[in-house]
Amino acid sequence: MFFILSKVLFFLLFPFSWVIILWIWMLLSKLEKRKRILRNVILVIFIVFTNPFIYSMLVLAWQPMPVAIPAGKTYNAGIVLGGMAGFDKNGRGHFGNNSDRFIQTANLYHQGVIKKIIITGGTGSLSQREPPEAFFLQKAFIDNGIPAGDIIIETRSRNTYENAIFTKRIIDSIHLAPPYVLITSSLHMRRSEQVFKKAGFQYIPFPCDYKVVPLGFAPGDYFLPNAGLLNDWGGFLKEMIGLAVYKLTGKA
Questions:
Q1: Residue 114 has pLDDT above 90, yes or no
Q2: Chain-centre distance for alpha carbon 89
Q3: What domains are defined for the chain?
């Protein structure tokens, strides 16, 4: 029920969805005063949520700092969270926007930092008709020169909470001791850390896939409206609200 409700309500986290809802309300409203108020609210949403400076400052504050692993330090496994790949209508897998998780995990293995790779990722789609993401990623890691024997997959999880719970069962069953490296996108790391800590993991976080990086000051980069941010805000708000909900429900 929690999974289905989260998927149904996800579209409400996007400012563009707010604009559409308010615009329809404005069209249906018969009161001129209400129309004017709704028009002004839509304008404020556009001004605030297309402003790169506001978005950049908040995301930079939310993202954890990059982690430098000391030379010669090794870990028994790197746990990489899914959410970086999908499948087309013909069942062919493809990488998506968060594929830096794959790149950094492969790098850590080839550098000798992690001895094994644990992929946790079933399918996050509401219909649950897609193949588990972990299968596609397993093949991709093998194609990247990583031995199949060093790859462990978890294919049942649908969200971050289940990533932690099902992965814990696997590592306990095969007696794979810590330390581990937890690998996921920087925007997703805060929630992931809390959930995996609650599940009893001992790990160091390795955030990657940074959505915003510090840049030199350029007025055009920070103050010219960017309509694409109406979509980007959804990912940020999902993490903030998701962490709060997980804490309230005892998952983090």
A1: yes
A2: 23
A3: 2-63+218-248 (no CATH), 77-208 (3.40.50.620)
